[in-house]
Amino acid sequence: MAPPFYVPLLYLYPNHDDNNNNIRDLVENRAPLLKLSLSKALSTYYPLAGSTGQGLHDPLTVRCNDEGALFLQARMMSSPLASIVDDEARLRLLFPDDLAFRSTTALSTPLVVQITSFECGGMALAVCASHKVLDMSSFCSFVNHWASSTAAGDRIEQVPVRFDLAALFPPVDVEVTKTFDPPNVETVCRRFAFGGSSIGKLKAMMRRHGIENPTRVEAVLALVCSSAISAADSSSRSRPGSAFLTQAVNLRPRLTSPPSITTSSIGNLSSIFAMLIEAGAEMDLVSFVSTIRRVKTEYFETCSAEYSRGEDFRSFIVESTKVFRDAGSSEEVAAAEPRVYISSSWCNFPVYEADFGWGKPVRVTTAAQELKDTIVLLDTKDGDGVEALVCLEEREMAAFQCDKMVLAFADINNQGS
């Protein structure tokens, strides 16, 4: 069920050494150190050193043949790291060419790493890993294990890692969704920062209307998606149609009955829940977050119950996508050409814990993508805010940026380009 593309994350590390005489040595010594520690980490996370995609007849198979990962080095010596931390155009240059969110069939390796050194001694680390091999939980486990190994050298103890998900949930040959072929339109991808204080005000407004303890993700996702739908309706020349919101979820915290699933279980253990916004439905922000919570709660409760009963869990995962799959088969819904908003929250994953021995990253972010109607949420460094990466049709983005709720709660000065 995992999409066949590279998931990209970018870690930005400033230079905390004030001795300018050591910068050249610092830059030159990091690459061999990272290569050595990566090779050791790959002996534990061995599927990442295998082959998949290009040249294989079975795209669902990872051939564990120790071919290794692709390790790239670059330099950006004309600019200090601090000058590009918030420069979206130049941040794109720090990812391996054309791999971020691209199909994994382009290469045979599931893992591509690029380090970029700066004249100030700072470093950018871009990691692109196949979603067919890792979900975000496993992605963080791998990078943080690699970081700890680098910082501690030979002193670190081996972390228990289990590749047992296929035994618990064997692959099933089923068409989970119809092929989603988005329209060929010009899209714009921009970032919107929601600071902790703004989210606090947003949550307080929701509590006043009866929403108990809304989370950061619920609040921001409801605002972004409801505003995106309003922007689409206002910029459309036709009658507003139905819309789906899908959200990817990590199932590990929900599967607590034996056999217990933890972060040491490496692979893909994620699914999606979907909610339908019917054409013409009056849904304000509070109603939107209430519906998200209801659908999500029902999904997780059923998920835990099905798993604890020991029944065929795969059937539940496939069935849970039924509302999404029905978008292509229901004549009534299909006639309305429903929009599909694909959201994924990477909040609350330990992306800022990756310390290779020179401190934690000053920023962790991802690459802009071109797929229409996508929303990716990430933590800000302080853990209180949320960074939303939103990709919309060009004319819809123009309306989205002028939405009164977006203007009220988002930091439009950090939206990028």
From TrEMBL:
It comes from the Eukaryota. The keyword Phosphoprotein does not apply. Keywords: Acyltransferase, Transferase. Coiled coil: none annotated. Signal peptide: none annotated. GO terms for molecular function: acyltransferase activity. InterPro entries: CAT-like_dom_sf. Belongs to the plant acyltransferase family. This is BAHD acyltransferase. It comes from Linum tenue.
